[in-house]
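Design a sequence for this backbone.
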């Protein structure tokens, strides 16, 4: 694969990103190739070095996956997620998926990649199960509160103590569901942002290691 083919494929694989992000990524790799190839004395040397640079960078699909993962991490960290309007992940789940694909596209051995994928899937499955359980419990308590309220309404005209008792249950159930529901939503957002920050740090460490080796 030649440099122009690499850049064309990279641009195609980044088509879901905002235009300015695509242009910046393609421009970065254009400069990456130009700076290295400008020092070559012959066409044969240029061709050989070009092949080495492309092999070192990875396939356009792998490079695009890593770039999209970095963008997804910034998307998750941002308070104003406008990616859906300007191009980018459609929602936070899509952003997380981009990050997973980006991690799996890192230049590691197959066994390490398999273990990484399995760990990621296990972590997400566990977190998803816990979140579903928490939300189910909150919804159940809220429904219980509404049911208690309905009983209190039906009991009007009867025992005042019964009405007061079920009204209290209703208010406690609804209030508890509202407060814990708000906390669960806030906690979910914080968790997603923490994942984005964690990936950003992971990418930064990889960059520093690569620069130190260079």
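Sequence:
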């Amino acid at each position: 694969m030649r440099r122009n083919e690499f850049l064309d494929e990279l641009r195609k694989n980044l088509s879901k990103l905002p235009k300015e992000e695509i242009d910046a990524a393609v421009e970065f790799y254009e400069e990456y190739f130009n700076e290295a190839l400008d020092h070559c004395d012959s066409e044969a040397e240029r061709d050989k070095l070009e092949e080495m640079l492309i092999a070192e960078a990875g396939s356009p699909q792998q490079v695009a996956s890593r770039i999209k993962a970095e963008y997804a991490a910034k998307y998750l960290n941002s308070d104003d997620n406008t990616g859906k309007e300007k191009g980018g992940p459609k929602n936070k789940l899509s952003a997380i998926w981009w990050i997973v694909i980006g991690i799996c596209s890192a230049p590691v051995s197959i066994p390490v990649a398999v273990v990484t994928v399995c760990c990621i899937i296990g972590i997400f499955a566990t977190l998803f199960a816990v979140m579903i359980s928490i939300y189910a419990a909150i919804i159940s308590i809220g429904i219980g509160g509404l049911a208690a309220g309905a009983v209190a309404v039906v009991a009007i005209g009867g025992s005042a103590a019964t009405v007061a008792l079920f009204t209290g249950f209703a208010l406690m159930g609804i209030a508890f569901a509202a407060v814990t529901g708000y906390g669960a939503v806030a906690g979910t957002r914080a968790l997603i942002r923490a994942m984005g920050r964690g990936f950003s740090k992971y990418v930064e460490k990889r960059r520093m290691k690569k620069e130190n080796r260079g």
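Residues 53 and 161 are 81 Å apart (CA to CA).
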